[in-house]
Design brief:
This protein has 15 helices and 13 strands. With 358 residues, it is of the alpha+beta class. The chain has two domains: 125 residues, no CATH class; 219 residues, Cupin (Jelly Rolls), CATH 2.60.120. Strands 1, 2, 3, 4, 5, 6, 8, 11 and 13 form a nine-stranded mixed β-sheet that branches. A four-stranded antiparallel β-sheet has the order 7-12-9-10, with no helix packed on it. The longest helix is centred in the N-terminal third of the chain and has 18 residues. It is globular. It starts with a helix and ends in a 7-residue tail after the last strand. The N terminus and C terminus are likely disordered. InterPro entries: Cupin_8 (IPR041667), JMJD6_ArgDemeth/LysHydrox (IPR050910). Keywords: Membrane, Transmembrane, Transmembrane helix. It comes from Stichopus japonicus (Sea cucumber).
Length: 358
Protein backbone atom coordinates (compact mmCIF):
# COMPACT_ATOMS: atom_id res chain seq x y z
CA UNK A 1 0.00 0.00 0.00
CA UNK A 2 2.99 2.24 -0.67
CA UNK A 3 2.92 5.42 -2.66
CA UNK A 4 3.42 3.70 -6.03
CA UNK A 5 0.58 1.33 -5.35
CA UNK A 6 -1.57 4.24 -4.22
CA UNK A 7 -1.44 5.71 -7.75
CA UNK A 8 -2.78 2.57 -9.42
CA UNK A 9 -6.40 2.25 -10.49
CA UNK A 10 -8.44 -0.87 -11.05
CA UNK A 11 -9.37 -0.82 -14.78
CA UNK A 12 -12.35 -3.06 -14.01
CA UNK A 13 -13.75 -0.76 -11.34
CA UNK A 14 -17.02 0.96 -12.18
CA UNK A 15 -15.67 3.99 -10.35
CA UNK A 16 -12.89 4.37 -12.92
CA UNK A 17 -15.18 4.88 -15.89
CA UNK A 18 -15.66 8.62 -15.43
CA UNK A 19 -15.69 11.27 -12.74
CA UNK A 20 -19.44 11.76 -12.60
CA UNK A 21 -20.20 8.03 -12.45
CA UNK A 22 -17.49 7.56 -9.79
CA UNK A 23 -19.17 9.95 -7.43
CA UNK A 24 -22.64 8.55 -8.03
CA UNK A 25 -21.65 4.88 -7.76
CA UNK A 26 -19.46 5.09 -4.65
CA UNK A 27 -22.08 3.75 -2.28
CA UNK A 28 -21.68 2.52 1.28
CA UNK A 29 -21.53 -1.07 -0.02
CA UNK A 30 -18.79 -0.07 -2.47
CA UNK A 31 -16.77 1.33 0.41
CA UNK A 32 -17.24 -1.84 2.45
CA UNK A 33 -16.12 -4.02 -0.47
CA UNK A 34 -13.08 -1.83 -1.04
CA UNK A 35 -12.30 -2.02 2.65
CA UNK A 36 -12.31 -5.82 2.68
CA UNK A 37 -10.29 -6.20 -0.52
CA UNK A 38 -7.74 -3.65 0.63
CA UNK A 39 -7.44 -5.24 4.07
CA UNK A 40 -6.81 -8.67 2.55
CA UNK A 41 -4.15 -7.21 0.28
CA UNK A 42 -2.51 -5.31 3.13
CA UNK A 43 -2.34 -8.45 5.25
CA UNK A 44 -0.76 -10.43 2.42
CA UNK A 45 1.82 -7.68 1.94
CA UNK A 46 2.56 -7.56 5.65
CA UNK A 47 1.79 -3.86 6.00
CA UNK A 48 1.61 -2.42 9.50
CA UNK A 49 -1.14 -0.16 10.79
CA UNK A 50 1.43 2.64 11.00
CA UNK A 51 2.33 2.26 7.33
CA UNK A 52 -1.29 2.30 6.27
CA UNK A 53 -2.06 5.34 8.42
CA UNK A 54 0.96 7.09 6.91
CA UNK A 55 -0.38 6.36 3.43
CA UNK A 56 -3.75 7.71 4.51
CA UNK A 57 -2.24 10.92 5.84
CA UNK A 58 -0.20 11.47 2.68
CA UNK A 59 -3.18 10.75 0.45
CA UNK A 60 -5.42 13.15 2.33
CA UNK A 61 -2.78 15.88 2.28
CA UNK A 62 -2.42 15.43 -1.47
CA UNK A 63 -6.12 16.30 -1.70
CA UNK A 64 -5.72 19.33 0.58
CA UNK A 65 -7.67 17.73 3.44
CA UNK A 66 -6.25 19.18 6.69
CA UNK A 67 -4.37 16.57 8.75
CA UNK A 68 -3.36 18.07 12.08
CA UNK A 69 -4.55 18.07 15.71
CA UNK A 70 -8.12 19.36 15.75
CA UNK A 71 -8.23 19.20 11.95
CA UNK A 72 -11.89 19.20 10.96
CA UNK A 73 -11.25 17.37 7.69
CA UNK A 74 -9.56 14.34 9.21
CA UNK A 75 -11.93 14.38 12.16
CA UNK A 76 -14.92 14.29 9.82
CA UNK A 77 -13.44 11.53 7.67
CA UNK A 78 -12.51 9.30 10.60
CA UNK A 79 -15.16 10.18 13.18
CA UNK A 80 -16.77 6.74 12.89
CA UNK A 81 -13.72 4.46 12.81
CA UNK A 82 -12.75 2.04 15.57
CA UNK A 83 -9.36 0.85 16.84
CA UNK A 84 -9.97 -2.59 15.35
CA UNK A 85 -11.31 -1.31 12.04
CA UNK A 86 -9.04 1.72 11.74
CA UNK A 87 -6.76 -0.03 9.24
CA UNK A 88 -9.71 -1.08 7.10
CA UNK A 89 -11.31 2.34 6.96
CA UNK A 90 -7.94 4.01 6.35
CA UNK A 91 -7.33 1.83 3.31
CA UNK A 92 -10.84 2.45 2.05
CA UNK A 93 -10.38 6.21 2.17
CA UNK A 94 -6.98 5.95 0.48
CA UNK A 95 -8.57 3.93 -2.30
CA UNK A 96 -11.36 6.48 -2.61
CA UNK A 97 -8.71 9.18 -2.97
CA UNK A 98 -6.96 7.07 -5.59
CA UNK A 99 -10.21 7.00 -7.55
CA UNK A 100 -9.83 10.76 -7.92
CA UNK A 101 -12.61 11.78 -5.57
CA UNK A 102 -12.00 15.32 -4.38
CA UNK A 103 -11.73 16.13 -0.68
CA UNK A 104 -15.13 17.83 -0.90
CA UNK A 105 -16.70 14.72 -2.41
CA UNK A 106 -15.15 12.54 0.27
CA UNK A 107 -16.42 14.80 3.04
CA UNK A 108 -19.87 15.01 1.47
CA UNK A 109 -20.01 11.22 1.26
CA UNK A 110 -18.99 10.69 4.90
CA UNK A 111 -21.43 13.36 6.11
CA UNK A 112 -24.25 11.57 4.29
CA UNK A 113 -23.58 8.13 5.79
CA UNK A 114 -24.31 6.49 9.10
CA UNK A 115 -21.27 5.39 11.09
CA UNK A 116 -19.68 2.28 9.61
CA UNK A 117 -18.13 1.37 12.98
CA UNK A 118 -17.95 3.00 16.44
CA UNK A 119 -15.61 5.88 17.35
CA UNK A 120 -12.17 5.25 18.83
CA UNK A 121 -9.26 6.47 20.90
CA UNK A 122 -7.02 7.64 18.03
CA UNK A 123 -9.71 9.60 16.23
CA UNK A 124 -10.96 11.27 19.39
CA UNK A 125 -7.40 12.15 20.38
CA UNK A 126 -6.83 13.79 16.98
CA UNK A 127 -9.87 15.99 17.40
CA UNK A 128 -9.75 17.04 21.06
CA UNK A 129 -8.52 20.47 22.22
CA UNK A 130 -5.41 20.88 24.39
CA UNK A 131 -6.23 20.53 28.11
CA UNK A 132 -5.51 22.95 30.94
CA UNK A 133 -3.39 20.83 33.27
CA UNK A 134 -4.50 22.77 36.35
CA UNK A 135 -7.44 20.35 36.48
CA UNK A 136 -5.14 17.57 37.68
CA UNK A 137 -1.92 19.27 38.86
CA UNK A 138 -1.05 18.01 42.34
CA UNK A 139 -3.74 15.32 42.47
CA UNK A 140 -2.36 12.13 44.00
CA UNK A 141 -5.72 10.35 44.15
CA UNK A 142 -9.31 10.93 43.11
CA UNK A 143 -10.93 13.16 45.79
CA UNK A 144 -13.67 11.43 47.78
CA UNK A 145 -16.56 13.32 49.36
CA UNK A 146 -18.99 11.74 51.79
CA UNK A 147 -21.22 14.76 52.29
CA UNK A 148 -21.04 17.73 49.98
CA UNK A 149 -23.11 20.83 49.36
CA UNK A 150 -23.88 22.44 46.03
CA UNK A 151 -21.64 25.35 47.00
CA UNK A 152 -18.60 23.18 47.76
CA UNK A 153 -19.14 21.11 44.62
CA UNK A 154 -19.37 24.29 42.56
CA UNK A 155 -16.28 25.77 44.18
CA UNK A 156 -14.01 22.71 43.96
CA UNK A 157 -15.22 20.51 41.11
CA UNK A 158 -17.99 21.75 38.81
CA UNK A 159 -16.89 22.63 35.26
CA UNK A 160 -13.22 22.29 36.28
CA UNK A 161 -12.32 18.90 34.83
CA UNK A 162 -11.34 17.75 38.34
CA UNK A 163 -12.80 14.30 39.11
CA UNK A 164 -14.58 13.50 42.36
CA UNK A 165 -16.28 10.47 43.91
CA UNK A 166 -19.43 11.26 45.89
CA UNK A 167 -20.19 8.45 48.35
CA UNK A 168 -23.76 7.22 48.86
CA UNK A 169 -25.24 9.87 46.61
CA UNK A 170 -28.11 7.70 45.32
CA UNK A 171 -29.21 5.94 48.51
CA UNK A 172 -32.86 6.97 48.12
CA UNK A 173 -33.21 6.19 44.40
CA UNK A 174 -35.78 3.54 43.41
CA UNK A 175 -33.34 2.34 40.75
CA UNK A 176 -31.26 0.57 43.41
CA UNK A 177 -34.21 -1.68 44.15
CA UNK A 178 -35.67 -2.23 40.69
CA UNK A 179 -32.95 -2.06 38.03
CA UNK A 180 -31.77 -5.38 36.61
CA UNK A 181 -31.62 -7.05 33.19
CA UNK A 182 -35.28 -8.03 33.25
CA UNK A 183 -36.35 -4.50 34.18
CA UNK A 184 -34.77 -3.15 31.00
CA UNK A 185 -36.18 -5.96 28.89
CA UNK A 186 -39.70 -5.26 30.13
CA UNK A 187 -39.20 -1.52 29.68
CA UNK A 188 -38.27 -1.79 26.01
CA UNK A 189 -40.93 -4.42 25.34
CA UNK A 190 -43.50 -1.98 26.72
CA UNK A 191 -42.84 0.59 23.99
CA UNK A 192 -42.98 -0.61 20.36
CA UNK A 193 -39.85 0.02 18.27
CA UNK A 194 -37.94 1.47 21.23
CA UNK A 195 -35.27 -1.28 21.10
CA UNK A 196 -34.88 -0.84 17.35
CA UNK A 197 -34.42 2.89 17.92
CA UNK A 198 -31.33 2.19 20.05
CA UNK A 199 -29.76 0.46 17.07
CA UNK A 200 -30.91 2.94 14.43
CA UNK A 201 -30.79 6.32 16.19
CA UNK A 202 -28.74 5.88 19.37
CA UNK A 203 -25.69 3.77 20.23
CA UNK A 204 -25.24 0.17 21.32
CA UNK A 205 -21.81 -0.83 22.63
CA UNK A 206 -21.44 -4.60 22.41
CA UNK A 207 -17.85 -4.72 23.71
CA UNK A 208 -16.65 -8.35 23.71
CA UNK A 209 -20.10 -9.95 23.46
CA UNK A 210 -21.72 -11.80 20.59
CA UNK A 211 -24.73 -9.48 20.50
CA UNK A 212 -24.85 -7.72 17.14
CA UNK A 213 -27.72 -5.41 18.11
CA UNK A 214 -29.46 -4.12 21.20
CA UNK A 215 -32.51 -6.12 20.14
CA UNK A 216 -30.32 -9.26 20.25
CA UNK A 217 -29.19 -8.35 23.76
CA UNK A 218 -32.81 -8.20 24.95
CA UNK A 219 -33.44 -11.73 23.64
CA UNK A 220 -30.88 -13.36 25.94
CA UNK A 221 -32.05 -16.62 27.52
CA UNK A 222 -32.21 -16.90 31.32
CA UNK A 223 -29.15 -19.14 31.62
CA UNK A 224 -27.05 -16.61 29.74
CA UNK A 225 -28.41 -13.78 31.89
CA UNK A 226 -27.43 -15.63 35.08
CA UNK A 227 -23.91 -16.46 33.88
CA UNK A 228 -23.07 -12.74 33.67
CA UNK A 229 -20.37 -13.42 31.09
CA UNK A 230 -21.34 -10.28 29.20
CA UNK A 231 -21.06 -6.52 29.48
CA UNK A 232 -22.74 -3.94 27.24
CA UNK A 233 -23.77 -0.30 27.14
CA UNK A 234 -26.31 1.76 25.24
CA UNK A 235 -27.79 5.21 24.97
CA UNK A 236 -31.52 5.82 24.97
CA UNK A 237 -33.18 8.46 22.79
CA UNK A 238 -36.77 7.23 22.97
CA UNK A 239 -38.68 9.81 24.99
CA UNK A 240 -41.20 7.23 26.21
CA UNK A 241 -38.41 5.16 27.73
CA UNK A 242 -36.73 8.30 29.05
CA UNK A 243 -39.82 9.38 30.97
CA UNK A 244 -40.15 5.94 32.50
CA UNK A 245 -36.49 5.79 33.52
CA UNK A 246 -36.69 9.16 35.26
CA UNK A 247 -39.24 7.73 37.71
CA UNK A 248 -36.46 5.64 39.22
CA UNK A 249 -33.68 8.18 39.72
CA UNK A 250 -33.35 11.85 40.59
CA UNK A 251 -31.18 14.80 39.78
CA UNK A 252 -28.02 14.42 41.93
CA UNK A 253 -28.44 16.66 44.95
CA UNK A 254 -24.99 18.26 44.68
CA UNK A 255 -25.33 19.62 41.13
CA UNK A 256 -25.32 23.45 41.01
CA UNK A 257 -28.59 25.17 40.27
CA UNK A 258 -27.19 26.56 37.01
CA UNK A 259 -26.20 23.14 35.66
CA UNK A 260 -28.27 21.22 33.14
CA UNK A 261 -28.08 17.56 32.19
CA UNK A 262 -28.46 16.08 28.75
CA UNK A 263 -31.71 14.38 27.80
CA UNK A 264 -29.72 11.28 26.81
CA UNK A 265 -29.41 8.41 29.29
CA UNK A 266 -26.56 5.93 29.02
CA UNK A 267 -26.83 2.54 30.71
CA UNK A 268 -23.92 0.14 31.27
CA UNK A 269 -24.66 -3.34 32.58
CA UNK A 270 -22.88 -6.65 32.96
CA UNK A 271 -20.77 -9.07 34.96
CA UNK A 272 -17.21 -9.23 36.30
CA UNK A 273 -14.27 -8.54 34.01
CA UNK A 274 -13.19 -5.78 31.67
CA UNK A 275 -15.72 -3.04 31.05
CA UNK A 276 -14.86 -0.26 28.61
CA UNK A 277 -11.29 -0.25 27.31
CA UNK A 278 -9.07 2.83 27.54
CA UNK A 279 -10.67 5.66 25.58
CA UNK A 280 -11.67 9.31 25.61
CA UNK A 281 -15.12 10.66 24.77
CA UNK A 282 -16.43 13.48 22.61
CA UNK A 283 -19.61 14.59 24.38
CA UNK A 284 -18.93 18.31 25.02
CA UNK A 285 -19.66 18.04 28.74
CA UNK A 286 -18.64 16.41 31.99
CA UNK A 287 -20.71 13.46 33.18
CA UNK A 288 -21.98 11.90 36.37
CA UNK A 289 -21.84 8.12 36.61
CA UNK A 290 -24.24 6.65 39.16
CA UNK A 291 -23.38 3.13 40.29
CA UNK A 292 -26.79 1.54 40.79
CA UNK A 293 -25.59 -1.99 41.51
CA UNK A 294 -22.25 -3.76 41.85
CA UNK A 295 -18.74 -2.36 42.06
CA UNK A 296 -16.50 -0.93 39.38
CA UNK A 297 -12.86 0.16 39.33
CA UNK A 298 -12.11 3.22 37.23
CA UNK A 299 -8.66 3.97 35.90
CA UNK A 300 -8.27 7.59 34.79
CA UNK A 301 -5.25 8.73 32.81
CA UNK A 302 -4.36 12.39 32.19
CA UNK A 303 -4.00 13.64 28.62
CA UNK A 304 -0.53 13.42 27.12
CA UNK A 305 0.22 17.12 27.49
CA UNK A 306 -0.34 16.83 31.27
CA UNK A 307 1.74 13.72 31.97
CA UNK A 308 4.57 15.77 33.49
CA UNK A 309 2.36 17.29 36.19
CA UNK A 310 -0.48 14.77 36.59
CA UNK A 311 -0.69 11.07 37.31
CA UNK A 312 -2.81 8.04 36.54
CA UNK A 313 -5.31 7.24 39.30
CA UNK A 314 -7.60 4.36 40.25
CA UNK A 315 -10.83 4.63 42.21
CA UNK A 316 -13.41 2.02 43.26
CA UNK A 317 -17.04 3.04 42.82
CA UNK A 318 -19.51 1.13 45.01
CA UNK A 319 -23.27 0.77 44.83
CA UNK A 320 -24.90 4.09 45.63
CA UNK A 321 -21.87 6.20 44.67
CA UNK A 322 -21.66 8.78 41.90
CA UNK A 323 -18.39 9.38 40.07
CA UNK A 324 -18.12 12.78 38.36
CA UNK A 325 -15.60 12.80 35.53
CA UNK A 326 -14.95 14.88 32.44
CA UNK A 327 -14.51 11.99 30.02
CA UNK A 328 -13.58 14.42 27.25
CA UNK A 329 -10.34 15.25 29.10
CA UNK A 330 -9.45 12.10 31.04
CA UNK A 331 -8.66 8.84 29.28
CA UNK A 332 -10.47 6.14 31.20
CA UNK A 333 -11.22 2.43 31.42
CA UNK A 334 -13.31 0.31 33.77
CA UNK A 335 -13.13 -3.10 35.42
CA UNK A 336 -16.19 -4.81 36.94
CA UNK A 337 -15.48 -6.51 40.27
CA UNK A 338 -16.66 -10.00 41.21
CA UNK A 339 -20.05 -10.22 42.86
CA UNK A 340 -23.43 -9.06 41.65
CA UNK A 341 -24.26 -7.48 38.33
CA UNK A 342 -22.92 -3.97 37.69
CA UNK A 343 -25.40 -1.31 36.51
CA UNK A 344 -24.44 2.30 35.88
CA UNK A 345 -26.60 5.22 34.76
CA UNK A 346 -24.73 8.06 33.04
CA UNK A 347 -25.70 11.55 31.99
CA UNK A 348 -23.60 14.47 30.86
CA UNK A 349 -24.00 17.82 32.57
CA UNK A 350 -22.86 21.33 31.73
CA UNK A 351 -23.37 24.94 32.75
CA UNK A 352 -26.58 26.75 31.80
CA UNK A 353 -27.03 25.28 28.34
CA UNK A 354 -30.41 24.15 27.07
CA UNK A 355 -32.92 22.60 29.40
CA UNK A 356 -32.74 19.85 32.00
CA UNK A 357 -35.67 17.49 31.61
CA UNK A 358 -35.08 15.72 34.90
Amino acid sequence: MGKKQANKKDPNSEASTGKNSKTEKLTKEDIKQLMQKALDKARKNGLSTYEIQTDLTNALRSKNVPVKPNGNGLMMLLKCTSVVALTVVSIAIVLAVCLDLSSEELLDFVRSQDCLVPSNLLVNEVGRPISDCSMCRGLEAVPIETSITKEIFLQNYAYSGRPVLIKQATSDWLALEYFDYHFFRRLYEKFPNSAEMVDSDCNFLRYQTEFLTFADFLKMDDDKVKRLDWYVGWSNCDRRVMKELRKYYERPFFLPDDSVSSTLDWIFIGGAGPGAGLHIDVVDASSWQAQIRGEKIWTVVPPYECEAVCRQMNVTVNQGDIFVLDTNIWFHRTEILEGEISITIVRSTTEDVGRDDL
